Amino acid sequence: MTENNNGGVPSQEELQQWADAGEMETVPVLADASGIWVQFEQDFYIPTIVHLGPDMTVLSIDEGIADPGMFID
Question: What's the pTM?
Answer without folding.
Answer: 0.54
